[in-house]
Amino acid sequence: MITTSIDGAVGIVTLDRPRKRNALSPAGLDELEAAIEALDTPVVHLRGAGPAFCAGADLRAVAELDGEEAHEFARSGQRVANAIERSESVVVAGIDGAARGGGVELTLACDVRIATPEASFAETGVRLSLFGAWGGTHRLPAVVGAGNARDLALSGRTIDAEEALRMGLISRIVDDPTEVVASIADHDPAALAAIKRRLRDDAPPEKQDRREAAAFADLVEDADLADYR
Length: 229
Hints:
The protein is α/β, with parallel strands linked by helices.
């Protein structure tokens, strides 16, 4: 269900269930969490196999859950999203085709979201009398703003890559996300890790400033700046 490979500085995590549009069952979530946590490459490329990125939760599996199991399924999805967010690697979502429900929520936890012109997005939970419970209710407003988040979550409508770009759900539209991943991975791993930690820091501003200065000083000590002297 989840496959991994390494290409130089890039760890590639593929949601590999194309017949089910890469929908994730409870076992699939466990596999994905393990894959993210096992990789220690500077950059991780999260992608889907086949014509879809990820259809979200496997609804056939969800339909068989009782209340307690559904609670654990939601918590599993949250753990995966948190693992992506907390990873020391820069995690880039390369979205080609449909991202639906939980598939959108996984991308929200990534550091960078890149889409092809064929990508589309929808928070489809409301269509099923549900909602996105893999951290989407707090990450979506943080990424696209409260108004856009309410629109997407309450309407369940589908948007294309161009509209996703306009509202900030993705940062670029490209033909091949692999090229963007490679360009990020070409930078110094220590700088990438430091930047991710600083951008993810939610401490009070004064503490962030101290940490920022300390991290910058560490990088200066190790950087080769001889050509600039």
